[in-house]
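Holo prediction. Input below; ligand is magnesium ion.
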Amino acid sequence: MNITVQKFGGTSVGTPERIKAVADRVSELKKTTPHIVVVVSAMGDTTDELIALSHRISETPNPREYDALISTGENISAALLAMALQNLGVLAISLTGPQAGVATSGHYGRSKIVDVDTKRILHELSLGNVVVVTGFQGINDALDVTTIGRGGSDTSAVVLAAALGAGVCEIFTDVDGVYTTDPRKVKSASKLSEISYEEMLELASLGAKVLHPRAVECAKENGIVIHVRSSFDRVEGTLVKEAAAMEVNRPVTGVTMNEDEAQISILNIPDSPGVAGQIFSELADAAVNVDMIIQTVQENGFNKISFTVSVDDLQQAKTVTSNVGARLKASGVQFDDAIAKISIVGVGMMSKPGVAAKFFKTLGDNGINIRMISTSEIKVSCVIDKADGPRALELLHAVFELDRL
Ligand code: ADP
Ligand code: ASP
Ligand code: MG
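Structure of the complex:
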């Protein structure tokens, strides 16, 4: 069975009118394509609103109930889209993650899809239905609904494409492709006609919201081409796929700014073996993902360890670090969420010396102070003050000539 998988994000299903427009588009496709699976996100800001609602009841909501709540946004959009398709005379059925056989495991709020039992989807397709599946959710071993992390509907779609043997997964969103940086933040951003999995994975992990990093990972593992395109028009978007077998000329393909991290510093901890191991094991046990880490010598055999975490994990990280800091007799723990992480990404930088230097010099020449640095073969990231973020993004985009691609 040749199956087409399409995913429509929050803005694309943000209003009843938008849902009807998606239904029009799918119904047109149905005339030539017999087997269609559509994955949907929650309407507009629904997930944010559900999260805010939970916090009006509790500062630290029970994780199971939190997922039971925040997964419901997708149920609404899926049911509405199925209704809109039916109104157009198209056979359609909505399925929740559990009904669609999406099995998850791991922590609530950030679980992973571990398996898809495609029986029900295949059955519904064989009856002629367009199958509308909720993104973002699945069911764990305890038969409870879990969610897979913010922005996770992209991953739901790619996982379903892999499980159903689709070679391409179309991700419809509110921009017409992947750009050299967020086109809402830098007007001169250029659209890329294609981008390698490696570069897209870095961009997504470093804050380019346009794709969920795990969606890119899953596409790479399964050789699925992701086509990122606009739900508002018909133009070709960006293909995310295996790198073409040619040399890359440009050193940098994209720039990202992530404003959703916070810096934590533990002050005056003993300079002795095992201390870092203890801090980061306790954070890992609490499922807090740590990003950049630096250790600096303070004085008299004491160190300061600073690291960044996602703001989503900040509450949990505060609890863990305050406890471990007290046990290590640290003189204090500081939290700062007024930071931005600015990164450049490009496979071309491997063969071009001086790229990192140009990055740092651009910031320095413009009076922007660097707090932390991290590098890999194909990226350089710096943590800077949040207030400097937008200016740094513009400057780096220009200095690496990304407006001229
Ligand atoms: P959806 O609701 O469809 O999943 P998202 O808001 O998650 O949409 O992702 C789309 C947004 O990603 C765009 O509106 C854009 O502002 C942002 N974005 C960030 N970086 C990039 C980039 N490099 N290219 C395109 N869009 C980007
Ligand atoms: N609705 C979920 C979120 O807002 C999942 C998604 O949109 O991909 O994070
Ligand atoms: Mg998204």
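The domain at 4-174 is CATH 3.40.1160.10 (Carbamate kinase). That is the main takeaway for now.
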